[in-house]
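The passage that follows is intended for readers who have already worked through the single-chain material. We present the inputs for a multi-component assembly, then the predicted structure in tokenized form, and finally a short commentary. You are encouraged to pause after the input and sketch how you expect the pieces to fit together before reading on.
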Amino acid sequence: MILPSFKYHQPTTLNEAFAVAKTCNGDFDFIAGGTDVLPNYKNRLNNRSHVISLSAIKELFELGDSKIGAMVTLVQLEKNEWLLQNHPAIAQAAHLIATPPLRESATVGGNILLDTRCWFFNQSHLWRESKGFCLKADGNDCLVVPQKDICYATYSGDLAPVFMVLGASFHLAGPAGRREVAAADFFRHDGITRYVKQPEEILTHISLPENAGELRASYRKLRLRDSMDYPVMGAAVALRLNGKIVDELRIAITGIDTTPFLYDDITKGVSGRELNSALTAQIANDVMEAVKPYRNVHFTPQYRKAMVGVYLKRLLQELSGD
Ligand SMILES: Cc1cc2nc3c(=O)[nH]c(=O)nc-3n(C[C@H](O)[C@H](O)[C@H](O)COP(=O)(O)OP(=O)(O)OC[C@H]3O[C@@H](n4cnc5c(N)ncnc54)[C@H](O)[C@@H]3O)c2cc1C
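Having made your guess, compare it with the prediction:
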């Protein structure tokens, strides 16, 4: 677990960061808290020769007015008064990530852009060499679903599903300018490509729509241990009721596939219906039927699939006060 050598850069503005990145010819990683990048480097997983720190770029640290800077730490998310009052589900999900010391360094941007995880990837070089390298690092074939086209490593971030159900947007800046991408459209079904962000683009902040505060939202995660563990299934639900009638319902699941996934095709159909126990069971069951977990993280796919139904039922009951 010795860190390999690399050249460390610490630009103070976005433009400086893009200029440094240009000189690295693609052989670089941005680094925020480093709690994902550095353990991967220690395992010799896709190391780069240059690491560009975002820690001195002031505009990435803003928090408030429906805006969360990418460099805001998870501890700040957990404790921020505005979030606790207006979007408690974000603080709740942040509180469930890793451990208190890790949350001091870990950032919201790094959490959204977390690398995908897999039994065949998150291992030492020696382990991977003896087993045979995989498509995501040093090899030619995916060892989960043997083929050469896409990687089936699992997306294991806790915050993205919450941002998805709240209708958040991710803001990117790059040498060609700035753009905004809805959280729901950000991820790509490939454990290597992962998202629409280009390598030279920096996530600057996350914004929340004005009406997000009207939604009741919550997040629950399944994990092996009750601390220091990634979700092997995490469910986020946002709900707006008019009496007992569903005005708006959004559900996103993480930790089961290469991306977090929003189930709008299922939940749109329930607007205008009474949220009783039969409908709760039907929604939980429909999403459970739709998920397809792979056998590459803790717990069997069958168990994780079953828990999607159980957790969603509990979340819907919690949010509807049933
Ligand atoms: C023991 C342990 C347990 C963990 N448990 C959990 C868990 O339960 N849930 C969970 O979600 N995560 C978990 N993590 C993963 C990690 O700690 C968090 O996801 C953390 O939020 C990552 O943030 P970071 O700032 O450290 O990211 P970094 O490691 O700095 O970066 C992660 C990735 O994002 C990119 N990046 C970061 N910020 C930007 C930006 N602004 N623009 C462009 N690219 C950027 C980096 O290049 C890198 O690819 C765990 C990690 C460890 C070591």
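Commentary: The pocket of flavin-adenine dinucleotide is lined by residues 29-37, 39, 54, 70, 74, 97-98, 102, 105-107, 109-111, 113-115, 156-158, 202-203, 228-230 (CB under 6 Å). The first strand starts at residue 7 and ends at 9. How closely did your sketch match?
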